[in-house]
Structure formats: C-alpha cells, structure tokens
Specification:
By secondary structure, this protein is mostly helical. It has nine helices and no strands.
Length: 283
C-alpha cells in the first residue's frame, strides 16, 4: 500500500503542478475562457491513462502461465526504466518547470483552441501513463489487490490537495527537497520492481536459478508477519530471494543512488576572449 501511495503521490503531484501552472497562467493573464479547453485536455489524458491500465490488466488476465510471467516481467522492466528516467528528469527540471510550461501554453494560445487542449493533454498524459504502468507493475507483487488500489487513490488525493494548496498559496513547501526525498524512496521501490521482473523471467524459464537462493531469513522475517508484508509491499523484499534477484536489486540500487545523490555540477560561463586584458608590449 505504501509503495502504491508513493507512486500516486509523486506522479499525481507532478501532474497537479502542471495543471495548476496552466490554470494560474490563464487566470493571471485574464484568459479564463480557455480554462474549459485545459480541463478537456486533462480529462482526455485521465481517460487514456485509465484505459491503458485496463488494457494491461485485460492482457495479463488472458495469457497462459508462461505468457503472463513474461508480460509481467516486461511491464516491470519498462516501469523501472520510466521511473528512473522520471526521477532524474524531475531532479533537473523541477526549478524550471513553471517557466517552461508557461512558454508552451503561450505558443499554444497563439495557435488556437485545439492547441491548448493538445498541450494540456500531453502535459498530463505522460504522468498518467507512467502512473498506470508503475501501478500495474507494483500490483504484481502484492498479495492483496485492495491495498495497492487504496494506496494509489490516497496518494492521488493527497497530491490534489497539495496542488490546490500551492495554487491558493496556502502551502509553501520546498519542491526540490520534496522531489529529492520521494526520489530516494522511489529508487528503492523501483529496485523492488526490478527484482520482481527478474523473478518473473525466472518463473517463465528465461533466466535460470529460480531455486538457488541467496539467503533465507524467513525464520527471522516471516512472510506472513506484518513487518514481512511491509517490506514486501513497499520495497518488494522477500525473505528468500534467489541469487539473481538479490544481484538485480543491488546492481540497480548502488549505481542509481550514487548518481542521484551526486552533487549536480554547475556550468561556468567561459570568459569571452575580448574581455581578457591585452598583453603589455615588451620593453
């Protein structure tokens, strides 16, 4: 439930920020008549995301055992790619997001009503499709189907409330720090999804070593205990992983955390040649 809540909160807040920036720009520029077009684009993006999630669920339900394991593995690996790209992209673009969106909306307003709808649709659709894919991948490792749905719903509702509070200037939060901490947690979630994708490939017979275990701590961390369920539900950590699963988790977490926590380099503007002092003439 926590992993699904985190996915809903992170992706939902990104989409909410996009929508709030667009709405605030239209309101401040006295173009409120364009608001229905923004909401139309948002509605189409939400419908596409829900339809994409339903398509994933329908496809997985009508496959055989091997085909379903392969399908789950592919969606899990794709989810890891998307969430990793999203984490690093948001780390770089969080500060400039507002200005970039306002510039795109200005161009869309000059092109016409349909351009505004398309611009709002594209701005939200990416987040919605990522949410559907990540949610589907995280659900595969869950034992109870209600908990992930409840978690992602609560996460989306929380993101809407935060976005509304920011729009009304009732909340002042440091978005850079917010995306840094949620990014760290999502890296651990993505590592668990990657581990589960490797497990699915082993179940399908694509990778060997399904019964070659790296360790067994089921006596200390029973799978049916509340803390065992918490670790499995949040980070997809199981008490008896295979060697390949454990290696996959480590091979993802270590370099990704290193790159994410590494300080960003600030580019220095080179001094023009004309600004350099002229050499003194020799005596």
């Amino acid at each position: 439930m926590f992993a699904s809540y985190l996915i809903g909160l992170r992706e939902g807040l990104e989409a909410t920020l996009v929508v709030s920036v667009l709405i605030a720009f239209l309101v401040k520029s006295d173009r409120k008549e364009r608001l229905p077009q923004v909401w139309a684009g948002v509605g189409c993006a939400v419908a596409l995301s829900v339809g994409f999630g339903a398509l994933l669920t329908f496809t997985a339900a009508h496959l055989g055992h091997t085909g379903q394991e392969l399908f789950d593995a592919i969606t899990s690996l794709l989810a890891v790619v998307f969430v990793t790209w999203m984490i690093f992209w948001m780390r770089r673009a969080a500060r400039a997001l507002s200005g970039e969106l306002r510039g795109k909306l200005t161009d869309a307003l000059q092109m016409g009503s349909l351009a505004v709808v398309v611009m709002a649709f594209l701005a939200v659709a990416r987040e919605g499709l990522e949410t559907a894919l990540l949610f589907f991948a995280s659900v595969q490792g869950a034992t109870a189907t209600a908990a992930p749905l409840t978690g992602i719903t609560l996460g989306l509702l929380t993101s809407v409330l935060i976005g509304w509070g920011l729009y009304r200037s009732a909340l002042r939060i440091n978005l850079t720090k917010f995306f840094t901490w949620t990014g760290l947690l999502l890296i651990l979630v993505a590592a668990g999804i990657f581990k589960y994708g490797v497990h699915d490939l082993q179940e399908a017979g694509v990778l060997p070593g399904l019964t070659t275990y790296a360790f067994d701590v089921s006596a200390v961390v029973p799978a049916d205990s509340w803390y065992g369920a918490l670790l499995a539900g949040t980070l997809n950590l199981t008490p008896q992983p295979s060697v390949l699963e454990a290696l996959a988790w480590l091979l993802y977490v270590v370099p990704t955390l290193f790159l994410f926590l590494r300080p960003q380099r600030t580019r220095t503007t080179p001094t023009p040649a004309s600004a350099s002092p002229a050499p003194r003439p020799s005596a």
